[in-house]
Amino acid sequence: MTSLKMGIIGVGGIAQGRHLPAFKQLENVEVTAVQDVNRTRAEEAAEKFDVPHVFDDYKDLFEKVDAVTICTPNKFHAEISIAALDAGVHVLCEKPMAMTVEECEAMMEAGERNNRVLSIAYHFRHTAEGRLAKQAMQEVGDPLVTRVQAMRRRKVPGWGVFTNKELQGGGSLIDFGCHLLDLALWLLDGPKPVEVIGKTYDRLSKTPGQVNDWGEFDHETFNVDDHVTSYIMFEDGSSMQFECSWAANIKEDHTTLTVSGVDGGLSVYPFEVYQAKYGALFDQTAKVDGGEDEGLVQAKNFVDSCLGQGELVVKPEEALKVSRLIAAIYESSETGTSVRL
User: Fold this and answer.
1) What CATH homologous superfamily does 130-292+323-340 map to?
2) CA-to-CA distance for 16 and 25, rounded, in angstroms?
3) pTM of the prediction?
4) Which residue, among 5, 16, 67, has the nearest Cα to 41 in the 3D structure?
5) Helix axes 101-114, 77-86, angle to 10 degrees
6) 129-151 residues labelled b (16+ CB within 10 A) or e (exposed)
7) CATH of the domain spanning 4-121, picked from 3.40.50.2000, 3.30.310.50, 3.40.50.720, 1.10.10.60
8) What is the Cα 204 distance to its own chain's centre?
């Protein structure tokens, strides 16, 4: 196989804003089909991106494709991924991997038994800063403390189903924080977590009279987390301080990921390396111009992996680790105790 026939399941914002434009740029990909529960939206997307086939049932799409990209609410990730893999179709699934650890494991088993590629769209790994940081981790030596913040000021998504717990499984953590959690674990080479303590909040978004930059939502029906804090301890003795929010009362949005190690320290945003050598303190910076769009880099990597021409960057077993930590943070908040893993 020298080219890949791609289908898109769910043609909402992330499909039309990232995946469809990326795959349409690749010469070795033909986007042949789309499916959405909203037939009108599917037909509009097909016309906009020149896709020949539109389906009402995602299972009917499989015969027209070699691979699918799944952009549905989280509740349906596992069901559709497993059906696709069992039909002999490769899968790129939007993050998070699934609603539960058990669903993630079932997806992995389906990929293995059918010998098909399964990847999760944790695109922060494909950013210029993320790729540079991965190479620079050798300057850090053994990691000691990692600090992660994925913070937004009053930006609860007021569209789609982001605030629907039944369909999404959670809020700011499972939607936004998961990206930085995945990136941090990747930079650290996936250390084994042994204990997690976490706390979730929703009080701000349940308060009447909201000022929200990203549209309106119903504070009375809001039932997901809008702010999460946690502390994660790893088997190698290192630790991570993790925080994310959709709606914090802070001065401005900011994304922070730093690693302090034995030989040096690293910041991803902005990219900097800190060391002590030659009897002095050294700060190193790099000009990161962005390069290729991360959505395009992600699409290329997935396609190359499906065609046997490259190694997958986001492996399913790594995405499973992220989901385990997400589940542990939620469990810790619900029980009021730390969770041993």
Assistant:
1) Dihydrodipicolinate Reductase; domain 2 (3.30.360.10)
2) 13
3) 0.96
4) 16
5) 10
6) bbbbbbebbebbeebeebbbbbb
7) 3.40.50.720
8) 25
Residue 210, token pair as written in the block? 């909201």
What's phi and psi for 22, nearest 5 deg?
Answer: -70, -50
Cα distances from 111 to residues 33, 42, 57, 96, 191, in angstroms, run: 22, 27, 21, 17, 24
d(CA 109, CA 106): 5
What is the chain's mean pLDDT, rounded?
A: 97
CB 231 within 8 A of CB 338: no
> What is the Cα–Cα distance from 73 to 251, expressed in whole angstroms?
31
SS3 at position 116: coil
Contact 152, 247 (CB under 8 A): yes
Both tokens assigned to 75? 């509740």
Residue whose C-alpha is closest to residue 116's, from 89, 98, 80, 81: 89
Three-state SS at 309: coil
Q: Report the distance separating Cα 78 and Cα 53, nearest Å.
A: 24
What are the structural domain ranges in the chain? 4-121, 130-292+323-340
CB 296 within 8 Å of CB 22 = yes
Q: Over the stretch 218-251, which tens digit does the pLDDT of each residue have? A: 999 999 999 999 999 999 999 999 999 999 999 9
